[in-house]
Amino acid sequence: MNKRTHLLSLCLLTICTLLILGGCANQSKKSSSDKLNVVSTLDFYGETAKAVLGKNGTVTSLIDNPNIDPHDFESTTKTAKQTANADVIIRNGAGYDDWIKKLSDKKSLSAARLMNVKDGQNEHLWYNPETMSRLADELVNVFSKKMPSKKAEFKQNAAAYKKKVARLNSELEKIRAERIEKPVAVSEPVFDYSLEKMGYKVANAHFAKAVEEESDPSYTDIKNLQNRIKRKEIAFFVYNVQSDGTTVKNIVNLCRKHDIPVVKVTETLPEGKNYFNWLQSEYRQIAEIEK
């Protein structure tokens, strides 16, 4: 090997070594700074994701405004980009937020699938606190597959979150033990999972379903409900205050006229509240009635 060839070989070797070392450094830097990017259709599921994820990534909730109807949500270029860049997507399922499928073909984590709830069944799954516990456990599995070194941390975070959920369940059990031995009526089936946990039966399911589907309840359904109210045959009326139908408002006025308590609930997370104090404020309305 002549001197010129030897020098050229040394130069090439040096360049290769620098490239390899640089690549290792970049890979090390990438590994140490990797964070998960999580997107949730609804803010209360985003809250669960943040609790489990901790400092290991960011969570974006596409709907974080109580005035947005999740059924009618319309995506923007911004939301499409957020979804496209997501490592994990969380949705309610059961037909509630199927619009997310148009934004991304990535497999999403469905709360309905976790709870074995099908399209056409009651989609308001967050009113069953068990949904949030199962979601937290499933997120531990999902996040751990993507960040194995953080599995213990995810499990610890989920355990702390589930302790809060347990307190909600304790409140439901206390209400169940002291419940009034009468059925209840509802404006629509938003709150039904919680009512079921409390041990209450809904007396006007057909009326409520019509309101949910934005159609007019039948004359018979309205008359039957009115008579139950006048005869004080229901313990209370659950009113989704985000409903703006005249029929429902007339029922609320009739309840007040005949001293039937009205429990106010919402379908979406109110501004300034988190999942826990939102549900607690609604549960405690019923606890006050039972005293």
Automatic annotation (TrEMBL):
One MF term from GO for this chain?
metal ion binding
Which residue positions does the secretion signal occupy?
Answer: 1-25
Q: Which Gene3D superfamilies match?
A: Nitrogenase molybdenum iron protein domain (3.40.50.1980)
Cellular location of this protein?
A: Cell envelope
Record bears the keyword Transport: yes
A Gene Ontology biological process in which this protein takes part is: metal ion transport
Pfam families under this entry?
Answer: ZnuA
This entry carries the following GO cellular component terms, namely: cell envelope
Q: Do you know which InterPro entries this protein is assigned to? A: Bact_metal-bind_prot9 (IPR050492), ZnuA-like (IPR006127)
- List the keywords (alphabetical): Coiled coil, Metal-binding, Signal, Transport
Q: Carries keyword Coiled coil?
A: yes
Q: Which residues form a coiled coil?
A: 151-178
* Stated name of the protein: Zinc manganese ABC superfamily ATP binding cassette transporter, binding protein
Q: What organism, scientifically named, is this protein from?
A: Ligilactobacillus ruminis
The upper taxonomy is: Bacteria, Bacillati, Bacillota, Bacilli, Lactobacillales
